[in-house]
Amino acid sequence: MSATDFDFLIGSWTVRNRRLIARGVGCSEWDQFSATSTFWKLLDGVANVDEFDCPERGFKGMSVRTFDLIEERWSIYWVNSSDGLLQPPVVGRFADRSGEFIGRDKDGSTPILARFIWTVDPSTPRWEQAFSIDDGATWETNWIMDFAR
Length: 149
Known about the structure:
A hairpin with a 7-residue loop joins strand 9 and strand 10. By secondary structure, the protein is an all-beta fold. It is built from no helices and ten strands. The model has no long low-confidence stretch (mean pLDDT 96). The protein has a ten-stranded antiparallel β-barrel. It starts with 10 loop residues before the first strand and ends with a strand.
């Protein structure tokens, strides 16, 4: 765990997205679309940013990540062009070639736990988002991004 954990993402990517049509209702139908992402480091690596551009769905997003040098963990924040609001962070760390990040949020008016899982692969990283409405007893994966150069 270090400020270099996300270095595998540096640069520009094409992104294949699969996102559930509806969350929390047992839906198994996925919306698939393309996007691009550009990632860069700041502050000697203790912060980084990526911009996600999704013209097929009419929005852009941005992740801001900060590394707590004392706790040795990351906080990941998301904001998108649809509402301009900085979302509550998910917090966590990497172990081996996977990172897990969890935080409290809302899906509409429903309180949830949000979980991001990053799979580290220098040529084909993957990001997965899941929500839990039962405080982490069960999870529904609702968005998967596969990255490629």
